[in-house]
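Possible regression after last week's pipeline update?

I re-ran a chain I had predicted before the update to compare outputs. Posting the input and the new output here so someone can diff against the archived version. Not blocking, just want to make sure nothing changed silently.
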Amino acid sequence: MSAAAVPGRLARLRWTFSDGAALVGRELGHLRHRPGELVGALVFPAVMVVLFGYVFGSAISVPGGGDYREFLMPGLFSMVTLTSLMAVTQKVAADAEKGVMDRFRAMPMARSAVPFGHTGADLVGGSLGLVVMVGAGLLVGWAPHRGAVRAAEAFALLLVLRYALSWLGCYLGLVARSEEVADRLGPLVLPLSMLSNAYVPTAGMPGWLRTVAEWSPVSALTASNRVLFGNPGVPAGDAPWPLAHPSLAVLGWSAALLAVFVPLTARAYRRRGR
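New output (post-update):
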């Protein structure tokens, strides 16, 4: 790359981030006109804590002992992280179906700013939901036991994987032909979260199903949370690689998702304009 090309690339990068930040503000501004959507997004995590914690709490034993709600909370953090997939899919599909993206293309703005705006807004909204969920967890008896630094690492991993998943959701929203199609994809998220160590130990699963669950990114994220928070259910020393090194596995999954779906999303956005 020539020295003369560097300032031009930096200028385009600043342009992209500036336009993307404006679209993040647009997405967040919509919540003022749809407060019910915001309330629902914030109440849902708290309801999940109470529902799963008290319904399953007396029926499931934790490997090695310990309180089930402390075992459960890292799994619920992972489940809420996974919801970014369909939340972004539905919003992007709605914008594409209603012609909003066609209007964006007619404006002098960076093309990659549109998916950047959707994924950035989801990250902000997800952070707020995470705060509510932490509060609900503290109320039912959960707590991080390894200090503020380790807890911050756990929350950072949650947000990193959430951001990576939001790019997958953005791509699915662009290739979906309508908001209705995007809505029908929603139920697929539940099996992804259930097929993991989020709610129950994987030891009781059939062999092939256990292997699939142990290599799930949801399981890696849940295991990393349990390790960093010091909660029950920390993987044993002979666990498969993703569970023996869960933080590295989460970073690997996140990097892979971004490497694949950032360019795919940019290409899908350009193609919709043809």
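Follow-up from reviewer: compared with the archived run. The two ends are 30 Å apart (CA to CA). Marking as no regression found.
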